[in-house]
Amino acid sequence: MLYQGKIFSNRKFIINHLLSYGFIQKDEQYTYSVNLMENSFNLNICIKELKEVTIKIIDIETNDEYTPIYIQNISGGFVGKIRKEYELILNDIAEKCTIKEIFKSDYAKKIVKYIAEKYKNEPEYLWDKTPNNAVFREKSTGKWYAALLEVEKSKIGINEVGRIEIIDLKATSDKIFSLVDNINYLPGYHMNKKHWFTIKLDGSVPIEIIYSLIDDSFNIIKKK
After folding, report:
1. What is the pTM assigned to this prediction?
2. How far is Cα 111 from Cα 211, in angstroms, rounded to an integer?
């Protein structure tokens, strides 16, 4: 059955984590099997192309698929116990084998990948009221060097309705003074404007330049 719950919503599977967890890879499929209910049932999980998740519950005694588990309006009693147990496993897989993938723009996704590959940092989501906003910290100091945010366009001076993804980066005061033009480079959104500036992730600044500015921001924090 195709898993249609919310456990893996807005999350990205990490191949190495899946393999460490015990998933077996064959072509573009990753499979995992575990027993439930004191070895009365078997849960088979299949992840196809790191996107589609299917589950199959097998009654070990009869070797038949236990179909009542797939009927959503059956939630109590024995079926409910099985569902609770397999959802605990799915939650554990989500926690240990995935990262949040909130951002929608190509630029934001490229930035997350760039930082993960170069600095081994993953985005941290710190605020319950703004769950789509994340920061990146330099590991040895614990200080932020980048923030990926989703904001209302009007908040950064764009006379349009809607939301936009932005990145806040750190720089020297002189560098910020020379960069900020209120077109491509903006004063730091929700940050100290003497030390931070903002870039819209809409293609107005080439991604290679943003990578370079991320490096500059990281190096400022690293030196402290």
Report:
1. 0.64
2. 7
Q: Please say whether the beta carbons of 192 and 110 come within 8 A.
A: no
**Residue 195 φ/ψ, nearest 5 degrees:** -120, -10
Q: Do 32 and 21 form a contact (C-beta atoms < 8 A)?
A: yes
The chain-wide mean pLDDT, for the chain, equals 91
Quote the pLDDT of residue 103.
81
CB neighbour list of residue 190: distance below 8 Å, 6 or more residues apart:
149, 168
Q: Is the dihedral of CA 75, 80, 85, 86 positive or negative?
A: negative
186 and 156 Cβ atoms separated by less than 8 Å: yes
SS3 state at 85: helix
Name the DSSP letter for residue 58.
Answer: E
The tens digit of pLDDT for each residue in 49-82 reads 988 999 999 999 999 999 988 877 766 789 989 9
- List, in sequence order, the alpha helices (H) in 14-172: 15-21, 77-97, 106-119
Asked whether the CA dihedral 154, 158, 159, 162 is positive or negative, the reply is negative
- In three-state secondary structure terms, 131 is coil
Q: How many Å separate Cα 106 from the centre of its chain?
A: 14
- Cα–Cα nearest to 172, from 161, 164, 180: 180
Count helices and strands (H / E) in the chain. Answer: 5, 12
Phi, psi of 50 (to 5 degrees): 60, 25
Contact 115, 214 (CB under 8 A): yes
Low-confidence winner among 36-40, 89-93, 130-134, 135-139 (lowest mean pLDDT): 130-134
Region 128-153: mean pLDDT is 90
